[in-house]
């Protein structure tokens, strides 16, 4: 299938609105404020998903969809949080499973309202089915099949209690798939595009197989970056998570969070151009820098640490984008590192702003890399220009 | 519990809290019941806080880029841009009972965080000053520029608390 990036933006926007309505419905029901943390579509193979969900236990509710959309939507939350959830519900823990089912039903109904309006067709929900699931079994049917899928995921957070919900939807077939490939409403993708680029030269349709190839490339890049940390520090370093997601760019700073971070940012030049940020929480930054220095620095994040982090950033970035040029058949280089040390979201917001001049949504690669021994962890965010990436991926499918 | 409209996509505000409304990036919100409006992680982005003291109606914008009027997305997501965001915020404040003639502004953010991203911060601040001036709204306080990230809280009393990355706090 060819995925239309603008149509994908429109779908993401619907999912975002739907999640907002689900949060509103849950807020009214529980009296606890819930907010939509992030909505995105991830590109992942069944194998990757199984790995990402390994060890997680979820409880939740699934509904079958008929009419305007067909398939399955799932509302799930972490089984560890079950008591927190029940304490919020009318009737409390005595209600248990039926309360959870009711919550799921109401929230998913809210989520689907927006889609029904957009499609101009009613979406019928089958009665909610309560489930308790291990690992990736929580995901809608079909998620683990085939080479890869788009999984729409919205995360809802309670602001005052420790409670996360996820809503999953999968464009496995039929109408939802038509929406994503841009068949249903090719021109009606408000906000999915920067307004420029309708000159006919910019392709926004990307073969799904190319996206999947790029996701693997990004994963390999993350592993290279981790290997380079290991080489520089002599410490075992591994990739925890590596994801390729399609998200609203405005949500990226919030994902980085408000904790102080230190690290490096780079401009990527070539096709695709874009930005790359390597961010450590302060303590992690100081630990990893110290592991590279011959003696303990006077200041944990002073000039010596800054130099060390810049050098580390350089080799990580080279490793990360190594292979892109070969696979995509383009040439990609990166700028010298720029050191950042500030509120996490503030360090990444200028990069997001710069890209947002041309796009509201984008493919974001994020990876979490963990260094053993010193317990240091960093997050890598790669933000490629959407049109240039689409062009490169389109060419990839032809070669 | 009251519902607050958010202009980002027109849905309900993305976060509500008893007494706290969180404004995201490219977002704007209005408070009429004494809630604290907050926005975090202002780097090159700019926050514009408007208050009509006589009614207590306040609004906060977290804009990312200076100019949106020429762009389609300026209309779709007015809060993304300083100019369209200010215009929409004034409109929403008026709808909530504020008088545009009594509004006063406090501006924060617009830092020059990176050499890589040519002066987006200062241009955001300049655009904000220009748009507010054109609307006849005086800027009574500002904490802008430099290379420091900021987080702000817009209190019920109309004062804007600006906290820098190093924890230093100023009340404007």
From TrEMBL, chain A:
Any GO molecular function: hydrolase activity
UniProt KW Hydrolase keyword: yes
Matching CDD domains: CheC_ClassIII
Coiled-coil residues: none
BP GO terms, sorted: chemotaxis
Keywords for the protein's UniProt record, in alphabetical order: Chemotaxis, Hydrolase
InterPro entries in UniProt: CheC (IPR007597), CheC-like_sf (IPR028976), CheZ_family_phosphatases (IPR050992)
Residue ranges of domain CheC-like protein in the record: 95-129, 304-340
PANTHER family in the record: PROTEIN PHOSPHATASE CHEZ
Protein name stated in the entry: Chemotaxis protein CheC
Source organism of this protein record: Halorubrum persicum
Automatic annotation (TrEMBL), chain B:
Family the UniProt entry places it in: Belongs to the CheD family.
Source organism of the structure: Halorubrum persicum
Class of enzymatic activity (EC top level): hydrolase
Protein name from the UniProt record: Probable chemoreceptor glutamine deamidase CheD
HAMAP family, A to Z: CheD
Function: Probably deamidates glutamine residues to glutamate on methyl-accepting chemotaxis receptors (MCPs), playing an important role in chemotaxis.
Reactions performed catalytically: L-glutaminyl-[protein] + H2O = L-glutamyl-[protein] + NH4(+)
Domain of life the protein comes from: Archaea
UniProt KW keywords: Chemotaxis, Hydrolase
Keyword Nucleus: no
Presence of the UniProt keyword Cell wall biogenesis/degradation in the record: no
Gene3D superfamilies: 3.30.1330.200
Enzyme Commission code(s) on record: 3.5.1.44
GO BP: chemotaxis
CDD domains: CheD (cd16352)
GO molecular function, one term: protein-glutamine glutaminase activity
């Amino acid at each position: 299938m060819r995925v239309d990036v603008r149509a994908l933006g429109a779908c993401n926007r619907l999912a975002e609105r739907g999640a907002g309505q689900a949060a509103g419905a849950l807020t009214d029901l529980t009296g606890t404020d819930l907010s939509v943390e992030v909505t995105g579509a991830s590109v992942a193979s069944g194998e990757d998903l199984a790995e990402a969900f390994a060890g997680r236990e979820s409880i939740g509710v699934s509904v079958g969809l008929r009419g305007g959309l067909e398939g399955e939507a799932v509302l799930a939350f972490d089984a560890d949080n079950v008591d927190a959830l029940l304490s919020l519900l009318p009737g409390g823990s005595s209600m248990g499973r039926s309360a959870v089912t009711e919550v799921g039903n109401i929230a998913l109904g809210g989520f689907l309202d927006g889609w029904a309006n957009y499609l101009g067709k009613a979406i019928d929900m089958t009665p909610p089915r309560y489930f308790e699931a291990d690992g990736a079994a929580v995901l809608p049917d079909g998620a683990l099949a085939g080479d890869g899928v788009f999984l729409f995921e919205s995360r809802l957070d309670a602001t005052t209690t420790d409670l996360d919900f996820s809503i999953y939807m999968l464009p496995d077939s039929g109408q939802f798939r038509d929406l994503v490939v841009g068949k249903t409403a090719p021109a009606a993708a408000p906000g999915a595009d920067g307004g420029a680029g309708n000159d006919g030269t910019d392709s926004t349709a990307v073969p799904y197989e190319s996206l999947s190839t790029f996701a693997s490339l990004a994963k390999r890049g993350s592993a290279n970056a981790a290997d380079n940390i290991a080489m520089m520090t002599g410490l075992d370093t591994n990739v925890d998570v590596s994801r390729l997601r399609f998200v609203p760019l405005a949500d990226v700073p919030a994902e980085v969070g408000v904790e102080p971070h230190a690290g490096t940012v780079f401009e990527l030049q070539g096709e695709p151009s874009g930005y790359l940020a390597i961010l450590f929480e302060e303590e992690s930054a100081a630990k990893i820098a110290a592991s590279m220095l011959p003696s303990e620095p006077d200041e944990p994040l002073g000039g010596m640490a800054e130099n060390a982090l810049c050098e580390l950033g350089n080799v990580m970035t080279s490793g990360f984008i190594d292979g892109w040029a070969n696979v995509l058949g383009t040439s990609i280089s990166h700028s010298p590192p720029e050191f950042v040390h500030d509120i996490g979201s503030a360090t990444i917001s200028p990069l997001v702003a710069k890209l947002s001049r041309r796009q509201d949504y984008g493919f974001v690669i994020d990876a979490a890399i963990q260094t053993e021994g010193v317990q240091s962890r960093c997050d890598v965010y790669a933000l490629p220009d959407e049109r240039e990436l689409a062009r490169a991926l389109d060419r990839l499918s032809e070669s | 519990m009251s519902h607050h409209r958010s202009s980002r996509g027109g849905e309900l505000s993305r976060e509500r809290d008893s007494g706290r409304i969180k404004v995201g990036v490219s977002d704007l919100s209005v408070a009429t019941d004494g809630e604290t409006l907050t926005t975090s992680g202002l780097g090159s982005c700019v926050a514009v806080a408007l208050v009509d003291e006589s009614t207590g109606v306040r609004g906060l914008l977290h804009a990312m880029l200076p100019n949106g009027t020429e762009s389609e997305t300026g209309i779709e997501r007015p809060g993304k841009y300083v100019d369209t965001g200010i215009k929409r915020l004034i409109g929403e404040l008026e709808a909530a009972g504020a008088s545009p003639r009594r509004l006063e502004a406090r501006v924060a953010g617009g830092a020059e965080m990176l050499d890589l991203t040519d002066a987006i911060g200062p241009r955001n601040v300049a655009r904000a000053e220009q748009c507010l001036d054109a609307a006849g709204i005086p800027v009574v306080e500002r904490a802008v520029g430099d290379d420091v990230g900021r987080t702000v809280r817009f209190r019920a009393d109309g004062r804007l608390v600006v906290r820098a990355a190093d924890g230093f706090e100023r009340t404007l």
